[in-house]
Structures are given as structure tokens and as C-alpha cells.
Amino acid sequence: MAASPVATGPDTAALRHVFGQYPTGVAVATARDVEGRVVAMTINSFTSLSLDPPLVAWSIGARSADLPVFAAARWFGINVLSAAQEALARRFADPLLRRDAANVALLDLSGEAPRVPDAVGWLLCAVDRTVALGDHLLIVGRVEHFDAAPGEALAYHRGRYARIDGRATP
């Protein structure tokens, strides 16, 4: 009897390239730890799930230093960044810079989850459930409050930040 082939999995670099072909929006997820300290990180894993009930989801890497805070949080905020906020996206994407206390000045600290001023969209969500999937934790939230503002959205495509201007294709 022939031995079955050993599954080695996909070439992760090639798979990352394919994933990069899909443009995503850029957002900052926010929460507070049990002592009320702010945690904020740039994400592009955000998606809407349902209008009735209003549910959204995003995921955080299982090795992220911020995982314990987001896994235990009862509330989180999603801040959809404007094209003018690329520097802020880069700052909150860097694990060392996003822990800097000066970052707090970049956030509105009122409410259950901090809010990024001048974002084009904002959602305050109560955690509905979390699910460990692969090397990430999927966090599903029920939208409790939201707001939108005019402006171009920030996107991430092929390893670079880009603008989404909202114009239809010809």
C-alpha cells in the first residue's frame, strides 16, 4: 500500500500575495483593558456581517500583544480611517508606537471605546462572541452606535495604502 502524501500547506508568501490582490479598508480597532487603559491597533480584517441584527466582525492575530485586552473586552470601537489619516494608520500598526502614551492624544476618550477623531466611519460595538480560528481570534460585535462623515476612505492594496474616492468606474 502506497503512503499518502504529507500535506505541507500552501506557500504562505504566495498566499499573502493573492490575499493582497483584494483591496481592504483600513480601520483602527479600540478597546479598554480592565483598568481602563486604551488599546488601539490598525486593522484591515473588518467586515460587516448582518443588518438584522447589526453585526460586524474583525480578527486579531493569536500572537498579538493586544490579544488579551481585545479577547476580554465587553466593548470595542471600529474607526474607518480617512485617506488623510495614513500616518495615524501607520502609527497604530506599529506594536511599539501604538503602546506609546502619546497615542491617547489622538483619540476621543469619552464612551465605552475610544474614538478616532475625523474618521469617515465609526461603530461602537458590544462583543457578541469570539471564536478562535486558525492563527487568529475572530471578534463579532453587535453595533450599538455609529456615525459617518464625508471624505475619502483609506484602503490597503498590494502592500500599500491607497485612497478610495467613491467615484464609480466608467
End-to-end distance, in Å? 59 Å
The SS-based structural class is mainly beta
Give the spatial strand order of the biggest sheet.
3-2-6-7-8-5-4
Q: Please, what is the oligomeric state?
A: single chain
Would you kindly provide a written description of the structure presented here, covering whatever features stand out?
By secondary structure, the chain is mainly beta. The chain contains three helices and ten strands. A seven-stranded antiparallel β-sheet has the order 3-2-6-7-8-5-4. Strands 1-9-10 form a three-stranded antiparallel β-sheet, with no helix packed on it. The radius of gyration is 17 Å and the shape is globular. The N and C termini lie far apart (59 Å). The mean pLDDT is 90.
Spell out the key features of this protein.
single chain, 170 residues, mainly beta, 3-stranded antiparallel β-sheet, 10 strands, globular
Summarize the structure.
With 170 residues, the protein is mostly beta strands. Helix content is 14%, strand content 41%. The longest helix is centred in the N-terminal third of the chain and has 9 residues.
Topology of this structure?
Elements: H1 12-20, E1 24-25, E2 27-32, E3 38-43, E4 47-51, E5 54-61, H2 67-72, E6 75-80, H3 86-93, E7 121-133, E8 136-148, E9 153-157, E10 160-164
Antiparallel strand pairs: 1-9, 2-3, 2-6, 4-5, 5-8, 6-7, 7-8, 9-10
